[in-house]
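Proteins fold reproducibly. Consider a sample protein:
=====
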Amino acid sequence: MPLVCIDGTTVAISVDGPQVLAKTSDTVPSSTQNTLKVGGKSALLEADVADWLAGYTTDYDNPPYAGGKAQGDSITGVSALTANSISSAEIVKSDTVFNATLSVTTPGDGPNGSKDPVSTINIIVEITDPAQTQLKAT
């Protein structure tokens, strides 16, 4: 059974496309008022990941364009969540995978002064460390 993720979970961010991100890992804090605790830390909910994504920023390249910047936009798909029977909140597990989008905030520069035409970058967010080793979920 997969572990429940908690405040401080580490994620890997990869691109579903030709772009190259500068920041490919991060830590996701719990930001909701979740009462489910593991070792004194809040369990991670889908809403926490959405809040983290909204604050995620990275530089990116999209050859031949370089030096672009992007920010988290929205979760477009998710697999393997567990519903909390008390609050019906969606709890993130160590095998949960998120599909999401980044919005390009500053397009990269290309040849002859051209700008990267891409406005959205598709990413995949996977759990690499659930930040605890005790509580498992089905």
